[in-house]
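Objective 1.3, modelling of assemblies. Example input:
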Amino acid sequence: MSSRIFQNVLQPEDISAILEFYQHKPDAKTESYVINKNFEYHIPEDFSYQLLHGKIEKILGPHEFDTGAYKECIKPYPLHSDSPETHSGIESVMSFGTKKNLNLAILIPLVEGDEFCTVVFDCYSTQDLKNKQQPTPNQLKQQDFGHCANQWPMLNRLPIVDVYHWRVGDMFIWDRQQYHVSADFARYGLVKKFLIMFVA
Ligand SMILES: [Fe+2]
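Predicted structure (C-alpha cells):
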C-alpha cells in the first residue's frame, strides 16, 4: 500500500475528545522539541482503542499495534523513514521493532491548515536515495523546507507520491518504510498536534 488519505473517518467531537483526553496525560519526555504522550492502543480498555479500533479495522481489517504516540511538535521533522528496521539510506532512519505484516504508519491530524503538510516520496528505506533523484526538480518550494537546508538539494529531486495537507477527520496512511518530510509549520509560530501509530 502506498500513501492514502481516508476522509471523514473521525467527527469533530472525536477530535475534541482526543485533545481533551491527552491534555491531562503527562509528557513522556522521549524527544527534544516534542511533547510525547503514551498512546495505549494495545490496551482494549484504553480510550484510544475504544475510539479508534473499529474505525481502523474498517479500513485495514485485522491489524497489530506496534507503537505510537500523541505528539505536540514545535519543530518540523526533516526527511526520514519510520522503518521498523535500520537501513543504510540516510542517518535519520529510525529503528523500531522487527515484526512486519501490514507495516504501515497511520497519521491522525488534530490540527489542520495549509501550513501543516506531509510530503511522501516514492522512496523506501531499503533504497539508496542517491539513485532516486530525478533530473528535474519536483514541485516543493524551498521556503517550506528551511529546516531541511542540508537535505534540500536531494529533497528537491526526489519523486513525490503525495503532498498531504492536514485536515481534521482524516487518517493518512503510508508504508512505514517510505520516506516523508514535514513542511515547516514552525515559521508561522504554530504547534503541530497529532496521533501517530504504527501497525506491524
Ligand atoms: Fe515519520
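Residues 4-199 form a domain with the Jelly Rolls fold (CATH 2.60.120.620).
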